[in-house]
Amino acid sequence: MTMTKQRESPGYYETESRIGGREAYETAKAAGKTELDYRQWVQVRTPEFKAWFGDWQTGAVSRNLLDGNGEPKVFYPAPAPDRITVTRQVVRTEQQQRRIRKEQTRYVKYDTQGRVLAVSSVPKDGLDAETHTRTRTVSVPVEKIEAVIETLRFAAHESLRTFTVHTADNQTVGYLSLWREFADGPPFLGDRPVSKPDGSYLVPYKAELAEGYRGLGIAAALYRFAERQTGEPVYPARSQTDMAKRFWDKRRREGGFGGYFVNGAGQIKSATDNSGLFRPDNPYTDDSPYRPSEISDGLSLVENTMEKEPTREADIPHGGLKTAKHHYQMHMATADTAEKLRCSLLEHAMEKTVAGLPPDMQVVARTNFYQSMVRDSVERQYADTVPPPGTELER
To answer: Core-most of 72, 171, 323, 376, by most CB within 10 Å?
Structure first.
């Protein structure tokens, strides 16, 4: 049994059998009646998908959410650029000229005509102390911190297995090397989506950024560039570092690599890396369970790699959106640090994902997000105040 078979929802197999399976899909594909891949073609016809998206086959869904064939449309985020502009703090050392004044005391004896008879650097009987000031110019190294705006360029090499980062003067300041890992090896500690048909994953082999270029979002942009060049997602390897796994978690929240579906309420679900459950009560695009560890793990992403994007709802008059965001901001003002980090991660992911939607759908998506976040927070607070059954007995 392949990994794909193990991960699908129960409704998937029932639907697959009912609609004719691979043969029916190939017929529809050859006739130009579908732009979806096989898994998507089956998924959009499952009870789980229709309960979340709506029954698009009976006309119960807006045409804006359907493609030219009348099937659920796969939206894609903005393509990954081959350049990134960053602001770095650079320490420069300059030689500055400084004048140094120094007082010197010597001991002198003069004759009656003012001529020097004796000189000493230490006190002696019969010698009078004299103080002289000497001035000299010296070069002193001084460190200066400057904010430097720099545009970096990504490049692909060696049959799309090595990707590098270059400065404007073609200096290499980072690289990412990929290799293929197969699913039949040692177990992977964590969650990974369905592998390719050959049971493999494209994973990082080595990755490095020069000092001074870390924590600026360059690594995340390089991963996206590599995915665009190879045409498939880059997953964390079995032995991968926690940072690489956080990149993967961040991409899951942003809708995954291969596009996403959007329902009438503006909620987003990955079109490729999903569980097949399409749960409306789960804010993650792949329906993965919320883990508190993602809040602490995401701290460096919030501080270092997230680029603040200007809010665009002011350009679209919509009272519901303004009200929903006002309630969300009131909630954020009283939330604790962990809750603020969780909300910041999800809000950033939402903004990245809706960027490719039509303006009216962006309004709906943002409104739904802010309303669901406030509702989710209230439910969490209520759950914290009500002890679960049997708590007292366990104590």
So the answer is: 72
Residue 166 has φ and ψ, to the nearest 5°, of -125, 145
Nearest to 275 by CA among 22, 21, 49: 49
Residue 283 to residue 278: CA distance in whole angstroms: 10
C-alpha angle 12/16/18, rounded to 5°?
Answer: 120
SS3 269: strand
Which uninterrupted H or E stretch holds 391?
helix 391-394
Q: Are 167 and 173 in contact (CB under 8 A)?
A: yes
**Three-class DSSP category at 328:** helix
Among residues 334, 353, 361, 278, the alpha carbon closest in space to that of 43 is found at 278
Please say whether the beta carbons of 236 and 246 come within 8 A: no
The answer to whether 286 touches 272, Cβ cutoff 8 Å, is: no
| Separation between Cα atoms, residue 29 and residue 358, nearest integer Å | 27
The rounded radius of gyration (Å) of the Cα atoms in the chain is 32
Amino acid at 175: Y
Mean pLDDT score across all residues of the chain: 75
CA distances from residue 115 to 111, 118, 120, 125, 131 in whole angstroms, order as listed: 5, 9, 15, 18, 18
Tell me the β-bridge partners of 266: none
Packing angle between helix 242-253 and helix 218-230, nearest 10 degrees?
70
Give the whole-angstrom CA distance, residue 323 versus residue 374.
12
Segment 154-197, tens digit of pLDDT: 999 877 789 999 999 999 999 999 888 876 665 554 555 555 66
Single-letter amino acid, residue 331: H
Q: pTM surpassing 0.85?
A: no
Backbone phi and psi for residue 363, each to the nearest 5 degrees, phi listed first: -60, -45
